[in-house]
Please model this.
Amino acid sequence: MQEKSSKPFFFVAGIAREAIELSGLSGYFRPMTTRTPLTSLLAALRPVAVLCAACLLLGAVPLVALAEQAAWTSPDGRYGAAFPGAPTAVDAAPGGLQGTSYVYVRKSGVAARFILSAITEPSLAQLSGSDARRAALESAVRSFAATLGVDEKDLQLDWDVFPGFGPRCLYDFVHRSRSGKTLLRIVGFEIIDGDRLVDVNVTVRSDYDYAGDAQIRAFLGNFKVFVSEAEYKPLLDAVAATAARVPLAETACPADLARDMASIASGNGYLQVGLRCYASSSSVADVTRALDGAGNGGRAEVRPGTWHDAFANGKERTDVVGDKGILWFVWPLAELDWPGLPQGTRSVVVAQPVQ
Model:
């Protein structure tokens, strides 16, 4: 890591511990057909990433939401989490950084501490590429564990991709409480959201089978990032501009198509921020040529990709829009079981904006 980033990450790593001590929470822990059905089409589009063991332990596939309701939403409306109860906000601004930790302590049954921290560090926004983000996350997690006296060999790390936000570092380690009488386990993960380091974790007794705890699984498995319209509207506008140049006639996307394509995108580390479907009376070859002729739809920020063969005798291409993209699919209707399209439809076009 560069000198510029190492100091902030050290401070960030200490935030959760500082929040715990300031809140006086440690005392709660006691020692101890010939046509292709749409479902088949979706399954063959792109291979879904295999979840790592740690991801399976966390429970549900992490969600990134556009307009969902969560059990709890951060005051700025950015994050959603399934806290078992209303968390307490604790200012977390060591070293001049800005941020907040939201803390909930479960006192009934087996005690557990649930924490979501969001810390602003401007240098994070300058990181380019998954390798740099991964290195920053690993540095932060290792520093966090080190502040609690954890030996590196006892720190378990795993990785997956949080849709729309790149690498996610999952961690699990055991440390002694400040009194030295209790062994505690902290399991959680960190992601980078723009210029923020976001940490979600739970602390329990080290001998507790937390994987079977429904509240812990819900908290770790259902963290959400709410995406604002300003973030995805340019992608939808670019799709509309390109479609208008062809031109293409928009039609309703089947609900199962929208849902399942969103799931496929998520499994591959992307966030689907919209879906547009079109019907055309032209062949697949003619439609792809027309889309090529439309260029970037008059938008300089769009870099059209090249066509590749897709499932069901279709074609697929990816247009790059900054750090986001638009996936275009064109299929012959004769290969699909897609009812309700206008008479004379020969091809269907699906545009999937992702980030």
